[in-house]
Design goal:
about 210 residues, Lipocalin, nine-stranded antiparallel beta sheet, TTHA0802/YceI-like_sf, signal, YceI family protein, Lipid/polyisoprenoid-bd_YceI
């Protein structure tokens, strides 16, 4: 009887010493799925800008340098994008000399200080469902935008989706330039500027394509 009792005691001791992870029963589907990074395709993605002033407006483009879109299942859940500020272009002015003059001014300390800040970045912090949008947007995107080394939170509606190994997002974000210390021509800081005033808000229209 004593010989049978000792092996039984040993087996009981081994089960009692088993790691908690080995004993714990995991219900399928309760663990959070990992996200997958889709690589931004700069050659397929576009980023346009529009700035307005009292007497008119100007528009142009900049190019994405690199980035990733984070995908979980069939949903975009995050991402980081780097913009090459040296690629900035003015597209509405055809006269070469005037075009170059405006590009030079936008590159200067009055605006984006591009020599000191050659890139801008945007990091998505949340993507939440949006319903009933008149423009067909299906999500509200929030994130941290960094321009001239200054980071501010922005939120905007977008149309996002994932299909066949491709993640896409498109929309328009409105940005208050004064929050990034771009105050040139702002009526908020120079009240007597009159019809030379430049609006504080400018818009960035984007179409982002990323592949698995």
């Amino acid at each position: 009887m004593k010989k049978m009792f000792l092996p039984a005691l040993l087996v009981a001791a081994l089960f009692a010493a088993a790691p908690a992870s080995a004993q714990k029963k995991v219900t399928p589907g309760t663990e959070k799925a990992a996200s997958t990074a889709y690589k931004l395709q700069p050659q397929l993605s576009t980023l346009g800008w529009l700035g307005k002033k009292v007497t008119g407006q100007h528009n142009g483009s900049v190019q994405f340098k690199e980035g990733d879109v984070l995908v979980r299942g069939s949903q975009i859940v995050g991402g980081t994008f780097v913009v090459d500020m040296n690629s900035l272009k003015v597209e509405d002015i055809k006269e070469q000399e005037y075009n170059a003059k405006l590009v030079g001014h936008l590159r200067s300390e009055d605006f984006f200080s591009i020599d000191k800040n050659p890139t801008s970045t945007f990091k998505i912090t949340s993507v939440t469902p949006l319903k009933g949008d008149a423009n067909g947007n299906n999500a509200t995107v929030a994130g941290d935008l960094t321009i001239k080394g200054i980071t501010q939170k922005i939120t905007f509606p977008a149309k996002v989706g994932v299909k066949g190994g491709v993640a896409s997002a498109s929309g328009t974000a409105t940005i208050d330039r004064t929050k990034f210390e771009i105050k040139y021509g702002s009526k908020s800081f120079f009240e007597s500027i009159g019809d030379k005033a430049i609006m504080d808000d400018f818009t960035m229209s984007f179409n982002v394509i990323a592949k698995k």
